[in-house]
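ERR on first pass: missing label on line 2. Operator R.T. fixed the label and resubmitted. Corrected input:
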Amino acid sequence: MATRILHWLEDRLELSSIRRLAVHKEVPVHRFSWAYFLGGAVLFLLMIQLGTGILLLLYYRPSAEEAYESVQFIVAEVEFGWLIRSMHSWSANLLVGMAFLHLFTTFFMKAYRKPREITWMSGVLLLFLMLAFGFSGYLLPWNELAYFATQVGTDIVGAVPLIGHPLMVFLRGGEQVTGATLTRFFGFHVAVLPALTTLLLLLHLGLVQKHGMSVPPKMIGKPYQTLPFFPNVLLRDIMAWYILLAVLVTLCAFLPWELGSKADPFAPAPQGIRPEWYFIFMFETLKIIPSNVLGIEGETLGVVGFGAAALALIVVPFWDYLARRLGRPGLLTLLGVLAVIYMAVMTLVGYL
Amino acid sequence: MPKRRSLLKAFLSGSIAASLLSVFYPVFRFLIPPDKPEASALSVSAGSSQDLAPNTGRIFRFGSRPGLVVRRPDGSLKAYSAMCTHLDCTVQYRPDLQHIYCACHEGHYDLNGVPISGPPPRPLEEYSVQEVGGEIIVSKVS
Ligand code: FES
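pass 2 clean. output:
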């Protein structure tokens, strides 16, 4: 019976072609093989986000009057509500962390080189989408910290030259952060961003399948060992996911995500307002730029700088190409190291 | 022939462009929130004036924005927009410092709304304030 069902499916879906693909895939074995697990880890956490996000949707209400109360309801009344919400918040943070690690390892192993330029670019865009998820999701519980963080964050967007103000109004749904902003961010968070993510993710993963695993440049031309993806590497992947899940649940159990107090636009801002950790290095940068540089407002300068940095990150494969043509292949690595140090130091400064 | 062909091409691309425009223009306009007139917020009451003791402040609604009225230690009244000129956080009056204070990034303003330390680049927007029959009436200086 089972074989008949399999045959029936085989005739229609050609499952064996997928199996052939899985059997052919091989993963190189070397000192940095652990880096091959990071992409899978991001994917796993993304699935957790999708699952917990859908669950939260069943009770969450996206309006200024009800958002905070509905999250409170989820946490206090719904069975395991605290767990689902904590998972969603913690996993978001792990996800961004893993995505950054994935970016750094890809960068330093030069996995963006031909033919993987598009894989790199789609990956960077996916990272930006993850940050947008983080920013839009932060407001949804409608608590004090989130309210003022959004106020500050969107005000920074307002510093973009020319289109800054209209862009800010578009994000806020008006001149101020109000219930309209909440509804908008909800729309971005559960519809627009997921749709874009799905498209880019399909491209990204499709390309990874097409090109196979990259090897670090030092090993190209030398013989190296490989491990079949199916089932050897997949089983190791699953082990990594179990470990991640254990870390995640431990975090949720011991440090359940706080809700804080309800946002009140007519109350003074609370002390120690601060964005999520992955925005802190930008935030600190804005603080150290003087308020006026050669007649340009410091905020504007900062925002333009970040825009340029984001663009530079997207086109890294072409920088690399250029650097090699100029006979300075190490230049980009040096820049990368400096960038990582800068981000780490600025983040630390933000917490001191 | 080529003349007629290029004419047809122009028609075709023109109508494609027009139909795209007719689809995206409404979408684009839809995305921009409507301007609500702020006329209602030219003058508002900030509550009773007896309840505001010297050296205290109170946040009130000025239309959709928060405002701050301060009774200075000498008894005179001042009113400002409570939106910090740095990054839009809501400021508060700190009786212990006799300053207006923004907790977001430690901004301090003096009793005339002029920044004295921290990141705020500009003074707070000032409103005119009057006491009418025991009530504090705040209005925009136009
Ligand atoms: S928003 Fe007030 S000091 Fe930054």
